[in-house]
């Protein structure tokens, strides 16, 4: 049993490492882009704004838009940053104290892209630990309770406790799990097959392996999509700044008296 639990812990840590690794590069690029934009907005672009204002000429739309964004960041950027930091810290404190955790856990499950990864991690964790406990001879109702306690997501934890109650009332495992509406139909079907054939432990192992591979595939797919999207976003920002400045200089030359 200890070997099985050690394998479960190792697989769980590996899943977290994969997700962290996949998100590190986009996070670094976005952070660098944000810092660059802030430096431009605070130190560089205001000098161009003074220069353009001294000429008293009509600026192109892109340049006016860039200067408006610069003015907003200069005047309100610090306030926005403080509000974001305060909001983030407040949310973290509330979650740590359990206040609003159900709401935030539901949001995490429904987030675009990352929500599906989080669902896969929790589903794989459920299958892996249930298989380990079942192979060790732990009664299913006890295994469900123990597994629910390992879930750091209220939605999944409540679903497992609800399913456990259904098992106590004689509903088997697959039926109560399906009734929660939380677990994927694939894992429910695998468990149903295991119950019908008396190979529940084996089917849980198969389900755990299936969702582990599905998580690997999803991470690779998300990484493939996120990295070009981040590079494209940074390129659009840099391109917009360049076009705004170049078009302004071109307009100055066009309006200069000959």
Automatic annotation (TrEMBL):
Gene3D superfamilies: Type II secretion system (T2SS), domain F (1.20.81.30). GO terms for cellular component: plasma membrane. Signal peptide: none annotated. It is a multi-pass membrane protein. Residues 1-46, 126-246 form the Type II secretion system protein GspF domain. One of its GO terms (biological process) is protein secretion by the type II secretion system. Keywords: Cell inner membrane, Cell membrane, Membrane, Transmembrane, Transmembrane helix, Transport. Pfam families: T2SSF. It is found in: Cell inner membrane. InterPro entries: GspF/PilC, T2SS_GspF/T4SS_PilC_CS, T2SS_GspF_dom, T2SS_GspF_sf. The chain crosses the membrane at residues 23-45, 65-95, 229-253. Its main location: membrane. Belongs to the GSP F family. This is Unannotated protein. It comes from freshwater metagenome.
